[in-house]
Amino acid sequence: MLRAVRPSPLRHSAWLVQARGHWRTVLVACAIGLSLAPALARDEPPEPPEPTGPRQAEAPTPLGRIELELALGQAEADAEPARAAALALEWLAAVETEFGSAAPERVSALTRTGRAQRIAGELDGAETLLREALQLSRTLDGPLSPSQLAPLTELARVYQAMEEYPLAIATFAEAQGLSRRTLGLLNLAQLDMLDGMAESLIALEAYDEAETRQREAFDIAERHHGTDSLALLPRLYEFAGWLRRTGKLAEERALYMRAIAMLEADGGAEDPRLIEPLRRLAKSHQYAASFIDPRAMPSSPTGHLSADQALGRALVLARGAEAPSPAVEALLLIDQGDWSMAIGRRVAALDRYREAWLRLGDAEDGARLRQAWFGTPAAVTAPQPSWRGVRPRGSEPGLTDGQVIATYSVNAQGRAENIEIIESYPPGRKDTTVRRTLREMRFRPRFEDGEPVASDDQRYSFLFGVRP
Predict the structure, then answer these.
(1) What's the CATH fold of domain 400-466?
(2) d(CA 356, CA 339)
(3) How many CB atoms lie within 10 A of CB 301?
(4) Distance in angstroms (rounded) separating the CA atoms of residues 158 and 115
(5) Count of CA atoms in the C-beta half-sphere (13 A) of 165
(6) What angle do CA 299, 303, 307 make, to 5 degrees?
(7) Would you list the domain boundaries of the chain?
(8) What are phi and psi of 426, to 5 degrees?
(9) Closest Cα to residue 157, out of 184, 121, 133, 186?
(10) The three-state (H, E, C) secondary structure of 293-342, written as one string
(11) Which end of the chain is less crowded, N or C, counting CB atoms within 10 A of the terminal residue's CB?
């Protein structure tokens, strides 16, 4: 069989030599033949050149359920509520796609998404999601399932944010009752619900009922952990803080002395964990200085430490630690300065602040801590304006919002001056009490290069309600 053969470009070049005898033609023909030979031998056309225009971006691959959950956790950790709420909705849709609309996994997804919506301020959407989570939980597990506790508690927080306090209290109470039936009478999950009830009762000015809830929570924690267990300390500190808010300072300090005794029994008198209750004890004394003339302050009960004694002992413990922390030592020096400023020992206070500033020079994060602790004036006493003739906002129906906004300076000695009322409604109603309050306040002044300096453009607001 005959096969057609493509003439070789090189042979064609030789023929040109014989026919014409021109060396210039030979060179050109050989060059052309060599450049075309590979393509002709393959019987293929040359490849087209690469495009030079911009390439279109590829569409991003949608995130899967696990990736969305990880991204949601990161947004929550970064305190980005709007982003977390948006990611939570995407994650919820992915959960529904993977597990179905009637799966147990959807209950927890609805609850977490409702929480994200609440934190982002989307209260109506949060309520809808949490009600759906409750209904699904009851359908899947029956009316007495612990799977309802999380959505119930979160729904109560939504009602708190809506300022629907009676509804919040009822929902917290329902959650607590369910927890006791399903998890036991002394379960610790109910403490969060009791705290929520107490906060809502405070908003309704039902202070005695709120205190009852807090005492119930502390009693449950004591019975669960045992009266001498160090696991009780977080709840003990929380209850003591509550007692301070209600003015029961002697009982608050007794709890701190109890914590000190518990820690000494466990780790000895040199245990650095003692620093925390000692600091809290001193802060209780400092809080009292906001409302009582230091010259008229009663002495501490027998066996209780004074603020000077508590802070002095805490500082000795910090300096004697196996690895002393400059930051902890500086914080205790600031505490000593704040206490001295609160009771009128201004020179001693400024000396302690200077010492703390210098000590922070040895701290790993000293520059940031100097800015945090000395970058702006800080009130060390907080006297309250007189409420005579006015009420807390929202404390009863029909109140009109009132306010006084003042600007002032804090001098290098920690006192307010140049007080000016810039907003007042009703006009002049509480101007005098705001001026008096600012004059009575004591401040830790701002520091620059280790020395106290004056600070201008400070603002103070007093918000209240008035009857029409």
Answers:
(1) TolA/TonB C-terminal domain (3.30.2420)
(2) 14
(3) 10
(4) 8
(5) 14
(6) 50
(7) 9-41, 400-466
(8) -60, 145
(9) 121
(10) CHHHCCCCCCCCCCHHHHHHHHHHHHHCCCCCCHHHHHHHHHHHHHHHHH
(11) N
Contact 133, 141 (CB under 8 A): no
Got the DSSP string for 85-111?
Answer: HHHHHHHHHHHHHHH-TTSHHHHHHHH
This prediction has a pTM of 0.77
Cβ-contact 422, 406 below 8 angstroms: yes
Chain centroid to CA 410 = 29
Locate 323 and state its tokens. 């690895």
Residue with tokens 């993977």: 98
The DSSP result for 392-454, as a single string, is -TTSSTTPEEEEEEEEEEE-TTS-EEEEEEEEEESTTSSHHHHHHHHHH--EE-EEETTEEE-
Do 94 and 68 form a contact (C-beta atoms < 8 A)?
A: yes
Question: Rounded to an integer, what distance in angstroms lies between the CA atom of residue 327 and that of residue 363?
Answer: 6
Q: Which amino acid is at 361?
A: G
- How big is the CA angle at 307 (ends 305 and 308), to the nearest 5 degrees? 95
357 vs 352: CA distance, rounded Å: 9
Predicted confidence pLDDT, tens digits, the chain (468 residues): 434 444 444 333 333 333 334 434 333 343 434 343 444 344 455 555 555 555 655 656 678 999 999 999 999 999 999 999 999 999 999 999 999 999 999 999 999 999 999 999 999 999 999 999 999 999 999 999 999 999 999 999 999 999 899 999 999 999 999 999 999 999 999 999 999 999 999 888 888 999 999 999 999 999 999 999 999 999 999 999 999 988 899 999 999 999 999 999 999 999 999 999 999 999 999 999 887 655 445 555 556 789 999 999 999 999 999 999 999 999 999 999 999 999 999 999 999 999 999 999 999 999 999 999 999 999 999 888 988 999 888 777 888 999 999 999 999 999 999 999 999 999 999 999 999 999 999 999 999 999 999 999 999 999 999 988
For residue 371, the surrounding DSSP H or E stretch is: helix 366-374
The secondary structure of 219-239 as a DSSP string is HHHHHHH-TT-GGGHHHHHHH
> What's the farthest any 2 CA atoms get from each other in the chain?
130
**Length in residues, the chain:** 468
